[in-house]
Each structure stands twice: as C-alpha cells, then as structure tokens.
Amino acid sequence: MGRKKVYGMTLMLMCLCSVASGLSFGREPKTVLTTLCFFRFWLGFGIGGDYPLSATIMSEYANKKTRGAFIAAVFAMQGFGILAGGIFAIIISATFQASFKAPAYEVDALGSTVPQADYVWRIILMVGALPALLTYYWRMKMPETARYTALVAKNVKQATADMEKVMQVDIGTEQKEPTISANTAVKSSNEFGLFTKQFVSRHGLHLLGTTSTWFLLDIAYYSQNLFQKDIFSAIGWIPAAKTMNAIEEVYKIARAQTLIALCSTVPGYWFTVFLIDRIGRFTIQLLGFSMMTIFMFALAIPYDHWTHRSNHIGFIVLYSLTFFFANFGPNATTFVVPAEIFPARLRSTCHGISAASGKLGAMVGAFGFLYLAQPQDKTKADAGYPAGIGVRNSLIVLGVVNLLGTFFTFLVPESKGKSLEEMSRENDDPTEAGAEVENHSSDNGTVPV
C-alpha cells in the first residue's frame, strides 16, 4: 500500500482510539475495563504500524552520513512526549486533588478511589491524541519515499519527480530515463520474499539479531517502566499506595517518573543522536546493554543497603543510570538498525517484526515482574496470593536478561557510513541478461535513486 498511505491510516487510528479509550463505558467496572482493553488493543495496532514506518521513512530520506542521527532523533522525540505526559499528569492530578476536600471519614468510606479519579485517567488518555493529530497535515503533504516508488512500485520516473520536489533541485532529464542497469537493479530487489531461502541466507541472522535484542531489551525496560512505583515504594521514596488516595498516588508517581525522565531518559536519547554516526550503532548497543547489566547487579546485590533512608539518593542515581544507558543504548539502536539493514521491499515488514518481538518482551516483562516482585511471604501464598521472589531477586533476573542482550548484539551488523543498498545487498542478484552484478563493488551496489 505504500509508506505514506499507511502512515496516515495508523495516525488516525491512534488518535481515534486514544479519545475512545478515555470514553470507555459500562455500567459495571469490569465492563468499563473490557471496553478500555478493546480500544487500547486498536491503539496498539496503530502504534505497531507507526513504529516501523517512522523509522523506514526517515531512513529512506536521509543520507548515509547522518542517517543514524536522523532516525535516532525521530525516536528521541519520544522522550519529550514522556516528559509532556508526566507534566500533564502532575497538573491534572494536582488540580483535582486541590478541589477534593472530603473529610477524613468520607475518604475512609470511599476507599482509595475517590470519585474525581474517574475524570483524571480519562482526561490524561484523551489529551494524548491532540499532539499526534497535529502531525496529520504534514504527513499527508510528504511525498512517498523515492526508494519505495522506484524499488517496490517500480516507477523510477515518479521517484525522480518526488526527489526533485523534496530536494528542490532539477535532477535532469538524462537521469529521468533510467539506463538498462538501473531498470535491472529495480527489478532484482524484488526477486525474493520474506522467509524464502535467499532471505534466510542473506538476512536470517540479522533478523534474529534485531528481534532477540529488542525482545530482551523490552523485558527489562518495560519492567522498569511499569513497576517504577513498586520499586520507589519498596525503598521508601514514595509512600505506600494504601496510605494515599488514587489522585494523590497519580501525582506522586508522575512526579517521580518525570524526574527520572528529565535527568536520565531524555539525555540518553540525545546522547545517541549526537554520537551514533560517530561511534556506530554496534558500540552504543553493546555499551548500553553492558552498563544496564552492571547497574542492575549494583542495585540488586547490596539491595538491603539501598533500603535504608540515608541511601535512597544513591539508589535513585543508579536506577536513573539504567534508564540513561537504555536510551543511550539498545532502546534507541534497536529502533534504528532494522530500518537500515533489510532490502526496501521488506524493510518496514522486518522492522515491524522486530518491534513486535520487543512488545512480546514487554508482555513477558510486565507479567513476569508482576509475579517475581511479590514479596516472599508464605502467609500471602497460603491465602491464595502469588508469592514472588522479591524486588532484589527480580533485579538480578533483569540483570541476566541484559547480559543476554549483550551477547545477541553480536548478531547485528554495523551500518554506520554505509548506504541502504550496500547494507541490504540490494543489487547482488544476476541481471536479466544473465550478467552478474559485481558484488564486491560498493558503487554497483547503489541504486541510482
């Protein structure tokens, strides 16, 4: 269907489902939750399309010298989104908390979920659609990428016209009519499909590398994100949930998470942007996984030391560094690399498979950590509650997961300073006339567009 068309469809799906999530309805709490899950599923469907398209479109527009920085910058904007979301949650929860003046006995009778809390989560979910909706106009004004038009749609003339429009230059009529070799290159890129023998021999290990590293990263990364509040409560940085009403809990958790994002998450993203085309993707990913492993073990092994109030700041610093090296590391590079190393026809698809394996890791991390982080309490286990291995041992498990990510990084090739065609071996196939394309020449491995 093309990058541009699906890009617009995924955006509208995300915006509509964000608003619909906030309007989740039902007479009973279970019905509301069921409706919410339905809309969040389709929101995820839209995000699942947006991930590979954002990376692929930028990779196909950028030049090989600055391509890594441009793709990483697209992903780094997520950091500002995290900050904006956290700040907005703080403002909304503080506003509603100030307006809630129920006496203490009424709060006890209501439990932790005060009536105003129902408005808080709905507003926060719906407002997320507004900044995304603002990008729709520019997405629709953007032409289809020249590589898709030439290599997949096989319309070199239209690709040239689109390039002239984007670059605001006249490429010249002599290049609008492709030579035989150019036509041959366009055709050869489409001769094998996904999971064919030729694909597996060329890119099988690459796909294993991108899927496994993204899977392992997200086990650790989403566990940390989703259960920050449990870790912060365990070390006493924020009060236990049972001592706060729901709005107060949103405020304090959002404040803690926003501080982490400001001091570590956002700087980590932009370190990647500035250094990825200097030191390379492989080095950044290897460094990130290694440092995350070290800091996880540094938190877990002397865990009892960090639980003392006087040591909370040290724990928060080390914990923040794991987020810094996740983003100045595999959380950014796993997004960048799949958009560079696969052939044009399968580029978005392989990136989507890699991202999907990451979200599978997120599911494993979410449910796994939910179980593992439960206290080792035999009384709770006898009462039917899950008895986990505690926060300390959970951090050790996440450290091992990051260590595995370090090893699987060696399956991912370095793409710094190389063209997309050079990385994907786009023109390695024989020509129609039976002449072989010279595999060892980087010049012949570059599509004219």
TrEMBL record:
Segments spanning the bilayer are: 70-99, 119-138, 259-276, 282-301, 313-332, 352-373, 394-413
Record's compositionally biased regions (Basic and acidic residues): 417-428
Q: What is this protein called?
A: Major facilitator superfamily (MFS) profile domain-containing protein
Primary location group: membrane
Q: Where in the cell is it found?
A: Cell membrane
Name the keywords, alphabetized.
Cell membrane, Membrane, Phosphate transport, Signal, Symport, Transmembrane, Transmembrane helix, Transport
Q: List the InterPro entries.
A: MFS_dom, MFS_sugar_transport-like, MFS_trans_sf, Phos_permease
| Species | Anisodus acutangulus
Reactions catalysed, as given in the entry: phosphate(in) + H(+)(in) = phosphate(out) + H(+)(out)
Family per similarity comment? Belongs to the major facilitator superfamily. Phosphate:H(+) symporter (TC 2.A.1.9) family.
User: Would you indicate the residue range of the signal peptide?
Assistant: 1-22
